Amino acid sequence: MTPPAEEKREFIHRLEALRGVAAMMVALGHCAATFQPGQGQQWFHDALITVFNGRAAVTIFFVLSGFVLGLSLRRSRQAFVRGYFEFVWRRFFRIYPALAVSSLAILGFLCCVPWDFGARSVATTPWFQAIYSTAPGWRELWRNLLLQDFSINQVTWSLKVELVGSALLPLMHVLSQKMAWRGRAVFMACWLALAWIVRARGGSLFFTFMFYLGYLLPDVGPTLMGWLNRRRAASATVLVATTLCLLARWQYNWPFESGLVEGFSATVLIAGILYGPELRVYRLLDTCLARFYGRISYSFYLLHFCVMYGTAAALAWLAPEELLRPYAMAWSFVLAVVSVAIATPLSWASYQWVERPGIELGRLKSKRAMSRHLVNLSGGNPSATRDSSV
């Protein structure tokens, strides 16, 4: 069931809030995976890292990017070369300023404090102890900024996928516009075949089919949800898809199959929010808190990881191990509260003073660059391009 036109803005706000929920899932999943669960706590630990499944949350990011960027490409009436240049340029300024500033801040923190204090405590998990097993230095900064290495901030692996997927999406759009639905189905099968080929090594290309799933949502979502709604199965389908998206983490030794389940399940979840029946749980996405974290979700995603590491290392250093091990899950809750409380104002500051200026700079630079390009094409006559400049 497609929402009326006057409600579409509300639903886009819900997608923004969904980004905040996904970013919080990543943060809380890291907190839950930090302290070694004691005897009888393993089931609770497993339940937490399933509910706060970080990779499922990142999958939601990728599908959302495909949907939102696809809408932008559909609205564009520019020629391909001109539109592609502006699209990539603005995407660069959307991602890189916050990445550069956060990487510098994290590296400065690691250089100025004893970064491994408490981090080798037996009360922490092997995953946590391996995060900064060797201290990254300034030599690694450039490799991290080029997204060839993720030793400064491990969560930035997803930004490489985001940039590759964003760069490929305009090409997907141009080809898809010339295809009927059968052609798009074959095109989707090609991206799945590519994911299957590179499944063993993972990497950026493995996840690109998720961007195309998001791109196809405006075409497939209304029809799918309308068909399910007529059979009164839409709500149950969204619930099952959400559950499968979270449970796929237990099959990560099957990377292609688990990625496939996560990608399609996340697509159904987002389709339910956009085009499905109204569910009470969706009202959580209308709250001011969810929308706030949706706005700062990118900076929060980048900054919380290091804040969490420093907070957990401090807790492991200050608290005796005999107090940490029996109450590991309680300490995970303390870690979540403290790290989120610290990361939130930092993320808001990054959003206000880094992200937003970067977005505006990308818009300004793309307009100026395209205007100069068009003037050159017109032989230096500005009046010839006045009406078509961006």
How does the SSE layout of this entry go?
Blueprint: H1 8-32, H2 42-51, H3 54-75, H4 80-112, H5 126-129, H6 139-145, H7 157-177, H8 181-197, H9 208-230, H10 234-247, H11 255-275, H12 288-295, H13 297-318, H14 321-324, H15 328-377
Helix pairs in contact: 1-2, 1-3, 1-12, 1-13, 1-15, 3-7, 3-9, 3-11, 4-7, 4-13, 4-15, 7-9, 8-9, 9-11, 10-11, 13-15
Description:
- This protein is an all-alpha fold.
- It has 15 helices and no strands.
- Helix 3 crosses helix 9 and helix 3 crosses helix 11.
- The radius of gyration is 22 Å and the shape is globular.
- The N terminus and C terminus are likely disordered.
Features:
mainly alpha; 0% strand; 15 helices
What's the number of domains?
1
Number of discrete helical segments: 15
Q: What's the N-to-C terminus distance?
A: 35 Å
Structural class: mainly alpha
Mean pLDDT: 87
Residue share in helix: over 70%
Number of strands: 0
Query: If you compute it from the alpha carbons, what radius of gyration comes out, rounded to the nearest whole angstrom?
Result: 22 Å
Low-confidence stretches: 1-10, 381-390
The main sheet comes to:
none
* Share of residues in strands: under 5%
What overall geometry do the principal axes of the alpha carbons give?
globular
Write down the secondary-structure element order.
HHHHHHHHHHHHHHH
Q: What is the chains' assembly state?
A: single chain
Give a brief rundown of this model.
The chain has 390 residues and is an all-alpha fold.
